[in-house]
């Protein structure tokens, strides 16, 4: 089943997101900031490890969603609905074999770097 991992999304946008995902039968997992040092794979699979300490640092200001196990058709439908309903999400990513081992903070760093590179090339 498709799942969205949701990080640091404000209440208004979260409410809109849940309405959309409910209609599409997509599960939404809101990830607490204490899990930001866990690998994305562990978060997606709802597993844990006593070796990973809870995150206690500064939470990034940007919101992030990670698509897990989506078909292209379902992702296109969800993205179109997010645009239509003006759901504001700073970063959107897909769980891949490469990034599944990253923790949430690494994902944020990668997303910030990609955005900076995109804006630099756009200018």
Features:
alpha/beta; 4 strands; single chain; 123 residues; four-stranded mixed sheet; 42% helix
Task: Give an overview in words.
This protein is an alpha/beta fold and 123 residues long. It has one domain (3-122). Helix content is 42%, strand content 15%. The chain contains four helices and four strands. The protein has helices at 11-24, 40-45, 72-84, 104-122, and strands at 3-7, 27-30, 64-68, 91-94. A four-stranded mixed beta sheet has the order 2-1-3-4, with helices on both faces. Helix 3 (72-84) links the parallel strand 3 (64-68) and strand 4.
Question: What general outline do the C-alpha atoms trace?
Answer: globular
Order of helices and strands: EHEHEHEH
Number of strands: 4
Q: Strand pairing plus helix content: what structural class?
A: alpha/beta
Physical arrangement of strands within the biggest beta sheet = 2-1-3-4
Contiguous helical run count = 4
How large a portion of the residues is in β-strands, by DSSP E? 5-15%
What can be said about the biggest beta sheet?
4 strands, mixed
Radius of gyration: 14 Å
Low-confidence stretches: none
N-to-C span: 40 Å
User: What percent of the residues sit in helical stretches (DSSP H or I)?
Assistant: 40-55%
Mean pLDDT: 96
- Whole-number count of domains: 1
């Amino acid at each position: 089943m498709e799942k969205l991992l949701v990080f640091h999304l404000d209440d208004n946008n979260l409410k809109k997101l849940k309405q959309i995902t409910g209609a599409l039968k997509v599960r939404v997992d809101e990830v607490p900031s204490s899990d930001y040092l866990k690998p994305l794979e562990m978060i997606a699979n709802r597993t844990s490890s006593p070796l990973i300490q809870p995150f206690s640092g500064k939470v990034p200001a940007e919101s992030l969603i990670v698509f897990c196990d989506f078909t292209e058709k379902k992702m296109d439908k969800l993205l179109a609905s997010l645009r239509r309903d003006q759901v504001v999400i700073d970063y959107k990513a897909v769980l891949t074999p490469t990034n599944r081992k990253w923790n949430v903070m690494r994902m944020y760093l990668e997303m910030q770097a990609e955005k900076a590179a995109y804006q630099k090339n756009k200018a």
